[in-house]
Amino acid sequence: MFYHGIDWVYVKKEYPLLSPRRNVSRKCPEQLADRVHLLQQFGVEPVHLLEEGPDFPAERCIRECLAFGDTVFAFKEVSSPLWQLSCHEVGVEVLDLRKCSLIFTRETSANVQVLFPDVPVLYTESP
């Protein structure tokens, strides 16, 4: 499984497709420097996801994603091309939220269910 953490406020703004190109103007200097590095390395600034594996279980992916946002989207698969950004991190050019298979969130159910009526949602209190 692949996991992406994001604040719900950005889900509402960006739905249904996440692409870093759409929010360049909102990036801080550190994020802009990271963007330039990724553009030089891959030719694109990818959307980051954590990939579950034998030494990187789902619980850890979810916990780490919740450090980046109040909502975590889980995907059974993601579209190609897929870039290996680090040992447990991959990137895609665009992430289609409509293809998620599970959502973990601290957001209210009504907000999530409006956009994702057929996706199972698990509510969490922990950061």
Q: What would your notes on this structure say?
A:
The protein is α+β, with helices and mostly antiparallel strands and about 130 residues long. The protein is about 30% helix and about 30% strand. The chain contains 4 helices and 9 strands, in the order βαβαβαβββββαβ. It has helices at about 10-15, 30-40, 60-65, 110-115; strands at about 1-5, 15-20, 45-50, 70-75, 80-85, 90, 95, 100-105, 120-125. The chain has a 7-stranded mixed β-sheet with strand order 5-6-3-1-4-8-9, sandwiched between helices. Strands 2-7 form a two-stranded antiparallel ribbon. The longest helix has 14 residues, at about 30-40. It is globular and about 40 Å long. The two termini are about 20 Å apart. The mean pLDDT is about 85.
Distance between the ends: 20 Å
Mean pLDDT, nearest integer? 86
Structural class: alpha+beta
> What is the N-to-C order of secondary-structure elements (H for helix, E for strand)?
EHEHEHEEEEEHE
- Estimate the global geometry from the Cα principal axes: globular
**Helix proportion:** 25-40%
Residue runs with pLDDT of under 50 for 5 or more positions: none
Number of strands: 9
Rg over CA atoms: 14 Å
Summarize the main sheet: 7 strands, mixed
Helical segment tally? 4
Number of domains: 1
Question: How much strand content do the residues show?
Answer: 25-35%
How are the strands of the biggest sheet laid out side by side? 5-6-3-1-4-8-9
At a glance:
The chain has helices spanning 8-14, 29-42, 58-66, 109-115; strands at residues 2-6, 17-18, 47-51, 71-75, 82-86, 89-92, 95-96, 102-105, 121-123. By secondary structure, the chain is of the alpha+beta class. α4 (109-115) links the parallel β8 and β9 (121-123).
